[in-house]
Amino acid sequence: MRILLIIHRLLQGGGTETHVMNLANQLRRRGHQVGIFTSGGLWAKKARELGIKVHQQKFTSKQLSQVILRNNYSVIHAHDTRSLRLIEHTEIPSKTHAFLTIHGMYIDGPLIRRCLNKTSRVIVVSPALQTYVAHVGVSSSKVTLIKNGISMTDFKGTTNKRLRARYRIPDNVKVIGYAGRFTLQKRLLGKRVVKILEGISRSRRDVWVLVAGRGSQLSVKNSVRCRVLGHVDDMQTFYNSCDIVIGSGRTAIEALACGVPTIAVGTKGYIGPVLRSTWLKAVKCNFGDHVLNRMKWTNEKLRNDTHNLLHRSNRVNSELKIIYRRVRLQYSDITKVKEVEQMYSNWLRPRPVYRRGSQFPR
User: Fold this and answer.
1) Could you tell me if 287 and 274 are in contact, meaning their C-beta atoms sit under 8 angstroms apart?
2) Which of 4, 17, 47, 348 has its CA 20 to 30 A from that of 233?
3) Which stretch of DSSP H or E encloses residue 76?
4) Angle at 31 between CA 25 and CA 37, to 5 degrees
5) What is the pLDDT at residue 160?
6) Among 107-116, 176-185, 239-248, which is the least confidently predicted range?
7) Residue 162's pLDDT is what?
8) Edge-to-edge strand order for the sheet containing 174-179?
9) In what order do the strands lie in the sheet with 33-38?
10) 2-149+332-348 with 162-330: one CATH topology?
11) pLDDT for position 188
């Protein structure tokens, strides 16, 4: 298949950007000709290095139409708000099928509806988003749930003390990691979480804090036993340097795949430690990222949950092993890419032809 993924900017470290890069690379490995239509970003170079064709253009419907026709793409797949606007205003060739993935509730409902007559299928990445798109008027017959997948090769538990050594963190202390984008929608949450963790590290000399994420160094500063790293390319090293990770969405899934105890908290929802009792709730809302109604939570709640994970019982350790196996079973990128690939194939497969007097299609 000839597949074109569409995303406005290929910025570093975002969940949607990481998803698109991973999907493109895995589809390429499976023998498909894959391109990305984008206005640019630091990861455009990385995509080219992976062997993915990057169409770095003015992000207009005219440019998109030209790219589709010149490269004979049979599948186009939009992944963010600007991409959906392009789908809305672009004349799509009859032999090309368009797909949308809804990554969050920030994508406007009316915009999704306006794209439906040009779209073969709408993908959502969590059960909460299924509810959301139904609420904004998308028929369930048009929707497919395919959860975000992560590389189980890139994210696995290993002993790694490089970050501790680089930032002169003693071996005998506990490290709490927070990872998230400090962009407009998530900056307040990041600053709140870091402030709570700094308070824990000030009151306990055996606790250090590591903060990772795009924009973190512009929003929070280094302090006693708190190191702000900014964007981190090697997140597996980050997770495996921590005794606990706090984050939402892809961050929480990646940390759990590395076997690190994780507290899920997003801009609208607080799940708490991901254990058997919170697993279904975490899965439903993509580990705190997709919540229909904002959940209030207190600073004390995060402090107590962090303390309990630092001093966890044997029972909790046993539960964490179960969660580790569930994540690796249910969120493998190879499995998820196969699901996307099958969905494309279902639409591109020629329809059976029935002839008069024939009992079976030919």
Assistant:
1) yes
2) 4
3) strand 75-78
4) 45
5) 66
6) 176-185
7) 79
8) 226-230, 207-212, 174-179, 244-247, 262-265, 270-273
9) 53-56, 33-38, 2-6, 75-78, 97-102, 121-124, 143-145
10) yes
11) 93
Distance CA 317, CA 336 (A): 28
Hey, what are 17's tokens? 């950007």
Superfamily (CATH) of domain 162-330: Glycogen Phosphorylase B; (3.40.50.2000)
Residue 275: partners with Cβ closer than 8 Å, 6 or more residues away: 316, 319, 320, 323
| 98/123 Cα distance (integer angstroms) | 11
Task: Compute the distance between CA of residue 271 and CA of residue 179 in angstroms, rounded to an integer.
Answer: 16
What CATH homologous superfamily does 2-149+332-348 map to? Answer: Glycogen Phosphorylase B; (3.40.50.2000)
Separation of alpha carbons 118 and 333, rounded Å: 27
Q: Are strands 226-230 and 121-124 parallel, antiparallel or unpaired?
A: unpaired
| 139: Cβ contacts below 8 Å, ≥ 6 apart | none
CA-to-CA distance for 230 and 215, rounded, in angstroms?
A: 6
Token duo for residue 84:
């959906």
Beta carbons within 8 Å of 153's beta carbon, 6+ residues apart: none
**Mean pLDDT of all residues in the chain?**
92
In angstroms, rounded to a whole number, what is the distance separating the alpha carbons of residues 57 and 64? Answer: 8
Please tell me the least confidently modeled range out of 12-21, 55-64, 188-197, 344-353: 344-353
Angle between helices 187-203 and 299-310 (to 10 degrees): 50
